[in-house]
Design goal:
The complex is a heterodimer of chains A (85) and B (229).
Chain A lengths: L1 E11 L6 H12 L12 E9 L2 H16 L5 E10 L1
Chain B lengths: L1 E6 L6 H11 L3 E6 L10 E4 L19 H11 L4 E4 L1 H8 L6 E3 L6 E9 L15 E8 L3 E3 L2 H10 L2 E6 L18 E5 L5 E4 L17 H11 L2
Parallel strand pairs in B: 1-2, 1-3, 3-4, 4-11
Antiparallel strand pairs in B: 5-8, 6-7, 6-9, 9-10, 10-11
The chains are: A alpha+beta (85), B alpha/beta (229).
């Protein structure tokens, strides 16, 4: 078993209203970043877990996302990276 | 009737629920600690409002793992009445006892009186109400925007699982009367069995004339019908 550090990004599902993202976008536009068309605010998590290899670590964290870390009704997640800890 | 009121770390409407049941309804209540492993004979369970477990991860997401929630889920599975109010509604959705999810409001945090319309009277929390009845009570939440995919919403409509809608003074579900951007103005829903009901507004804060509304009384009286004791 090796210890892996698996990074996950969880963001509001596309198409659902994201008031937090919209507020941040408006603030950026007010600051002069007029080219910003959209912002999505989500969460970044790093899970340290033991697994036999990197694909196993990723599969394990994917299951964690489906069961707890992301809300299946409203959020999407992507595995952003898997590295040996 | 004996009502069990679950107290999670961070619950803050538990005493209001107790006050409503004991002082206004004249029934018995028992406080249930989140680490309890039994319902202490409760006929009805209330999941009160607050910020259970600090709203860590997502509102309601952690509470479902507490020991008492295993008992609450079993009670619900056997048809026992379970009422989720505000954070309790979020917990019930996260626990899979109710469909959908409650997202951050379209606007900001809202604390104000709203009017809701009873859509169904065949649930554990509306048996003493009437279809179309308008009820005035407060809301106070930052994450109350009821959300589900279109297919689920259509199914909820078809099954008659939408229990309350935000409406204006004339009883119309308008965009202006929707305080949080909830899909289809939904303020409360029930499960297929109609024994679990969740709503964002606070009926337990609308029991006393001194607080501006007694429209919550009819909902608590409905528990007597549901408990059948």
């Amino acid at each position: 078993m090796t210890r892996f550090r698996v990074a996950v990004q969880i963001i509001p599902r596309r198409g659902l209203l994201d008031p937090q993202g919209k507020t941040v976008r408006d603030a950026l536009v007010t600051l002069g970043f007029g080219s910003v068309s959209d912002v999505h605010v989500g969460r970044h998590m790093v899970v340290e877990t033991d697994a036999k290899d990197a694909p196993a670590a990723e599969a394990s964290v994917r299951a964690m996302c489906e069961r707890l870390l992301a809300n299946p009704v409203t959020e999407d997640f992507t595995i952003a990276g898997v590295v040996a800890a | 009737m004996k009502v069990g009121i679950v107290r999670f770390p961070g619950s803050n409407c538990d005493e209001d629920a107790l006050h409503a049941v004991v002082d206004f309804l004249g029934e018995t209540a028992v406080m249930l600690w989140h680490k309890d492993h039994d319902l202490h004979g409760a006929d009805v369970v209330i999941l009160p409002g607050g910020f259970s477990y600090g709203d860590y991860l997502r509102a309601g997401a952690i509470a479902r793992f507490s020991p008492i929630m295993q008992e609450v889920a079993a009670h619900a599975a056997h048809g026992g009445p379970v009422i989720g109010i505000c954070n309790g509604f979020q917990i019930a959705c996260e626990a899979g006892l109710l469909p959908g999810a409650l997202l951050r409001n379209a606007g900001s945090y809202v604390s104000m009186p709203v009017i809701i319309r009873t859509e169904r009277t065949d649930t554990s929390f509306t048996g003493a109400s009437s279809v179309g009845q308008l009820l005035r009570m407060p809301i106070a939440h930052g994450e109350g925007r009821f959300t589900a995919d279109e297919a689920t919403l259509d199914q909820l409509e078809a099954n008659g699982q939408i229990v309350f809608r935000y409406v204006d003074a004339h009883g119309n579900a308008t965009p202006e009367s929707n305080p949080n951007g909830a899909m289809r103005n939904i303020a409360g829903v029930t499960n297929v069995g109609r024994n679990v009901v969740g709503l964002m507004p606070h009926p337990e804060r609308a029991m006393d004339r001194a607080l501006g509304s007694q429209d919550g009384v009819v909902l608590f009286e409905s528990l007597l019908v549901a408990a059948n004791v």
